[in-house]
């Protein structure tokens, strides 16, 4: 393990870190919107929406993300209607094709996580809100969604971690994110171990920070599960 070469590689790979984070954040943010819409479609009770959401989840969860990226980047350009459409300035760019593929993929997984969170909300709390005269949208915004987020956050956190790692597939459509730069360095130096060890360490650091962030949000969203330290200390003092 050449430390000097590893240090030089680290500096080169860190230059690609902003693109990796941008891909992950954009895909997760847009995917969460699509996922919420799919989850609501599954729970809407409208047969057409329900089956559309089921079909979407079945297709995107049942096919590899690599194939989806290839189909979007290389496949859509084969259709003249796409090349002459208003979407072509976006679909001809590797960046937006990667974002689109990552977004559609994560939406399929996240929709089931969000649906599980929505179904976990106790029906009694919804009935209590209705008894207080809350309108339907207010019940969803102030009762259902906060509780659903609290329940879905651990599972959704795992999906976000998976999406950070999935950004490495964007290198196959010429995007120079961390894995793309790593592949270029390997082709120039033929030193595989040092490059991939450094690249893996960067992904590990990103996901470590992400797990800490998710744990902090989960801690903030569950104050009722935290034991009041002051009262606990007073009780111990009285016991003595």
TrEMBL record:
Protein's cellular compartments: Cell inner membrane; Cell membrane
Q: Name one Pfam family in it.
A: BPD_transp_1
Q: List keywords of the entry alphabetically.
A: Cell inner membrane, Cell membrane, Membrane, Transmembrane, Transmembrane helix, Transport
List the protein's name. Answer: Octopine/nopaline transport system permease protein
Originating organism: Sinorhizobium kostiense
- Which SUPFAM superfamilies does this one have? MetI-like
Task: Give membrane topology per the record.
Answer: Multi-pass membrane protein
Q: Which family does it belong to?
A: Belongs to the binding-protein-dependent transport system permease family. HisMQ subfamily.
Q: Which residues cross the membrane?
A: 20-41, 53-73, 166-186, 192-217
All residue ranges annotated as the ABC transmembrane type-1 domain in the record: 17-214
Q: Which residues form a coiled coil?
A: none
